[in-house]
Amino acid sequence: MRPSGRTPDQLRPILLQRQFTRHAEGSVLVGFGDTRVICTASVQESVPGFLRGKGRGWVTAEYGMLPRATNSRSDREAARGKQTGRTQEIQRLIGRALRAVVNTEALGERTVILDCDVIQADGGTRTAAITGAYVALHDAMRHLERRRMLTRFPLHGQVAAVSVGIYRGEPVLDLDYAEDAEAETDMNVVMNEAGGYIELQGTAEGHAFRPDELSAMLELARGGIMQLLEAQRETLASSP
Amino acid sequence: MRPSGRTPDQLRPILLQRQFTRHAEGSVLVGFGDTRVICTASVQESVPGFLRGKGRGWVTAEYGMLPRATNSRSDREAARGKQTGRTQEIQRLIGRALRAVVNTEALGERTVILDCDVIQADGGTRTAAITGAYVALHDAMRHLERRRMLTRFPLHGQVAAVSVGIYRGEPVLDLDYAEDAEAETDMNVVMNEAGGYIELQGTAEGHAFRPDELSAMLELARGGIMQLLEAQRETLASSP
Amino acid sequence: MRPSGRTPDQLRPILLQRQFTRHAEGSVLVGFGDTRVICTASVQESVPGFLRGKGRGWVTAEYGMLPRATNSRSDREAARGKQTGRTQEIQRLIGRALRAVVNTEALGERTVILDCDVIQADGGTRTAAITGAYVALHDAMRHLERRRMLTRFPLHGQVAAVSVGIYRGEPVLDLDYAEDAEAETDMNVVMNEAGGYIELQGTAEGHAFRPDELSAMLELARGGIMQLLEAQRETLASSP
Amino acid sequence: MRPSGRTPDQLRPILLQRQFTRHAEGSVLVGFGDTRVICTASVQESVPGFLRGKGRGWVTAEYGMLPRATNSRSDREAARGKQTGRTQEIQRLIGRALRAVVNTEALGERTVILDCDVIQADGGTRTAAITGAYVALHDAMRHLERRRMLTRFPLHGQVAAVSVGIYRGEPVLDLDYAEDAEAETDMNVVMNEAGGYIELQGTAEGHAFRPDELSAMLELARGGIMQLLEAQRETLASSP
Amino acid sequence: MRPSGRTPDQLRPILLQRQFTRHAEGSVLVGFGDTRVICTASVQESVPGFLRGKGRGWVTAEYGMLPRATNSRSDREAARGKQTGRTQEIQRLIGRALRAVVNTEALGERTVILDCDVIQADGGTRTAAITGAYVALHDAMRHLERRRMLTRFPLHGQVAAVSVGIYRGEPVLDLDYAEDAEAETDMNVVMNEAGGYIELQGTAEGHAFRPDELSAMLELARGGIMQLLEAQRETLASSP
Amino acid sequence: MRPSGRTPDQLRPILLQRQFTRHAEGSVLVGFGDTRVICTASVQESVPGFLRGKGRGWVTAEYGMLPRATNSRSDREAARGKQTGRTQEIQRLIGRALRAVVNTEALGERTVILDCDVIQADGGTRTAAITGAYVALHDAMRHLERRRMLTRFPLHGQVAAVSVGIYRGEPVLDLDYAEDAEAETDMNVVMNEAGGYIELQGTAEGHAFRPDELSAMLELARGGIMQLLEAQRETLASSP
């Protein structure tokens, strides 16, 4: 029995609220249950040094968490003067995940920065961030398209992410904090709309996981991601 | 004529949404028009070194802005590795303003940290932060009181803040970004419920301001702050 | 009765020693009683990035304190690896105060950096720094003028600063450390030669200050600043 | 055809040289082909704050690369003043991998720090580091055992790691730099002696990888890791 | 012929002004010609961790230079966020030089920090700093003695320093900036009152220096240091 | 009697292994007894800003020590976020020593960076680093010569370094850690093939050293360096 009463293959309620803030080219509040992340997409008419003059764009991500997004307050990274290893790991993951569906030549010499800021955390902040950032990135691309700044639409695929794990011996989908804190294995899966893996990150917390457990988790992840991709499409089909 | 169509002595719509996030002892979303700041109050059962063993508590504040809270994206302070002078100045101001209404002996050897994070900026972020942080601080104090952790209520006064300025030659209340960017003088006023000044910070941007201009701005500030204090009382009187 | 025996409206002895060190275009040792600050003005033939190519110059300030300028030694900021919030706040104030009297177009694409380093502290270091930096800045401008590097003189006004406060219930001018440590209110006033306010920063340390107390403090500040402006003029009228 | 002429399931020559340097409790030079990493295990009689007084030990890792370990020199992290996100990600991975086989209660209140420093890089530095660090950790545990500082041997399993990927459409084992730079997918697999997964990190570089590709890669990894585990056992069985 | 007209073995005018600032236990303005350094000695009733509980004290030094002490302004180290290698090298040298004449057991569990801040630089700042810091240290020790906080006087020797070099082929004493910038060899010599070497640091800038040149430089240094030691004694013999 | 049984004028066994790693233009493992340092020379086709466009090259050095190169583990500088003063002092010394034998015009607008990383420390790491870095630098120059990128060979001399000291009252050559920790005086001597001094750094640890002790140490150093220079020549004469 899961603490939330969910079935093993049940996602938490999904929230994808577009135009959450005013200034960004894309701005989405994403919720996976009580986890809430603001994802903004900012377009800049320049690229990092290593891409200058190559006719290609770049997509990158930054991740942060408000100090009291969690149950006990954590230090503000800006005050400590550096980002933790965890933060860097997550923002690198988000960036890679989104770049996997971007045609950087179609984007042109521009950078899109995805800022994912957790305002409330209850497990799964990185998978929520990827799922929400995709919608924000899509809105930013439409923004460029409406202004006739593109010759082709730069997204060639769709991407979403979810966590899976082994909780009290059973594979479960989309772990909340209560489950995550106790899980024996925790895996984040990033997948595109064709069911291809973009990123797989699994960690044994308690015992090493067996190949059959891996298969069960991957199956759960596939089911969850298909629902998340559908939720993204629905949101994007509506007027924001 | 103000860009927003407001009269010189008119505040923007005020939003004070309590229990905005789940984890903090106090959590308020404050809005001054389009400016939106999340203010959380976190209670910690310890005090900074210089107060240890003295039977007194501490109240402090930290301030941040999401990178795309503004019209053009600013660098993430955590990534740059340090807080700007502006950030430090603002968080020191918020801390002083709130400490002015706290009886630190009644609080006991605890620290309350007020995190003020701007998610959307349109001028007046520091005055909105002070006004919202007061409500979050009050909720945190009630939280301690309900748990019978206090012998006396530690707040001995109420505090709110507003900006005033000279815009196109005329004193105006509660400047939005369009006004602020062009104002000749910008002043932040922090006041308690008895009309006493807690903090006054005025800066001539264009020409030096005259004593009569100062008087007119202080009069506007007083009127605005009385409305903000009333809004705080109304919010706190309702169940959250 | 003030610890120093001064009357409430009495400044400490003022020292403005020009050409205190050899290398800078302007170099002034300023003293407000026992407070001693070395203010140098350094001219650089370049401007910060945001001003490049705009035909305008820039004036900025940096502030520091020798570790043993104070009664108990404070850590060296260079060794700690960052400037405190207080330092940043003060250097931003000094920069704004001086820019208020500079015609940046007349200055041309140059930067003047005002370094204000406290070698002995006894209260009022920021107001002494502003008052001394004006003289150093003036000397640097004369230096450029003598070299025929200017078409117009870039200073269109004069600026000085003083602190006022409420000490043991009475408004007093130019607080020394003994008064400052105990004052209920502390206010720094920056004014130009026409009596216009350039900056006002008042903080209630004990109780909130009333409008009549504010008026009394502003009156004292005005009187003190007029004497400081006169002292600056005298110094500048003599050969250094 | 692989650039090195290896078959798809062929590891590079493995080197595990114990007692490579004199001072550390465990010191191993590990080679996967031309990749060379010095892994030292240092025992400290203390634990991090969060474990103090709990009767348990800790194992952690740090990773570095000499500036000219690579084909073009990279900046020295100590000179830049911070570790890159990549470095932090790798050292967190190494630490988690090794902790998975440690009984921290049997270790007692001690910390073992595994320093993995790459002196020559040719792909697979993190998997070589994990594989070598296990041997260094084992030597450090034997060192403690010989000094009768343990009541039980703290390692309850064995761990090794290898990379797999899709190179020119074909799954291959243990990628060298020439392959890695061009691979469409790159996956690091950490496994114990029972064939359980300790960590799985797969990233699509070019196209998303399909479930059948995942299976093929996992199969290759299993075969490679079994050989690495055997090599570790052989080394440890000999006198160093 | 030296730019200053001095003979090869002639020191610049020496200034040793005690009680230069008010707060420090020892405070000396030292001048070697136009080089001016404020040296303060601060006593703290604690020692660094590695000495705690050992009944011995510590003497250490920090060095800084005001940004415009030099002909062209250098960046403020506190603003850059770190001390240069040059600064660290110099402050380590000053600390070693002074510790060489201190009986740390007689000092007791206290630290004396020597802050050497250059307000005007014209070559030889480190040797001036050592020479002046000795006087400040002596005053601080007398301060402790007057308060009956010592059982024995902790200085068992006297120390001073001077630079020597090869300028246009000729060995010269106490190089000023004009000479230093052009010198083929630059050597700093720290010596005690018995003519023993405490520190020797010689660097060939142009050609390597021969043994006979070394001898000539050491002879000049000895003569100069004897005069400096005499100047210290005279200063300390007078009432400050 | 020396702990190692050596005579006072006896060097430890010298190791100079060229082509120790693959990527660098020069790569040498240098050993002075148990001290082991990897010295690589990396050629970059650019120069620091202050040399740009002047037709001259630059040679610089960086120094590091693996955390467990020493008997007790020291913190990783990259993790601490800054290099110690000791590290900076040593790398500045190595850079100066090597530049003394380089004709920077013959080098052309290139930089050679010498990375000296200690993998095992037993005293004398800086002198071993200089001695090994010379060989690495020479190999890098030959590398450029073979590619016909030079018109003249840029090395006009040869350089090596050794430590000398007073151990238990007697001058000794090439101190190992056991001697160094106890030595009364420690001196590092850098010399060229003509017997000219390039750098001399002597520090009295216990008592100040007398002129006759200085002479004896310099004599020992000369003898040792002549052997080191010979060892360099032999190594360079053989095919690597």
TrEMBL record, chains A, B, C, D, E, F:
Family classification: Belongs to the RNase PH family.
Domain Exoribonuclease phosphorolytic: 10-140, 158-222
Organism: Candidatus Macondimonas diazotrophica
Any GO BP annotation: rRNA catabolic process
Superkingdom field: Bacteria
Keywords of the record: Nucleotidyltransferase, RNA-binding, rRNA processing, Transferase, tRNA processing, tRNA-binding
Enzyme Commission number, as recorded: 2.7.7.56
Physiological role: Phosphorolytic 3'-5' exoribonuclease that plays an important role in tRNA 3'-end maturation. Removes nucleotide residues following the 3'-CCA terminus of tRNAs; can also add nucleotides to the ends of RNA molecules by using nucleoside diphosphates as substrates, but this may not be physiologically important. Probably plays a role in initiation of 16S rRNA degradation (leading to ribosome degradation) during starvation.
Matching NCBIfam families: RNasePH
PANTHER family reported for this sequence: EXOSOME COMPLEX COMPONENT, EXOSOME COMPLEX COMPONENT RRP41
GO molecular function, one term: tRNA binding
Catalytic activity: tRNA(n+1) + phosphate = tRNA(n) + a ribonucleoside 5'-diphosphate
Residues reported to bind phosphate: 86, 124-126
InterPro entries the UniProt entry points to: ExoRNase_PH_dom1, ExoRNase_PH_dom2, ExoRNase_PH_dom2_sf, PNPase/RNase_PH_dom_sf, Ribosomal_Su5_D2-typ_SF, RNase_PH, RNase_PH_bac-type, RNase_PH_CS
Subunit structure: Homohexameric ring arranged as a trimer of dimers.
UniProt protein name: Ribonuclease PH
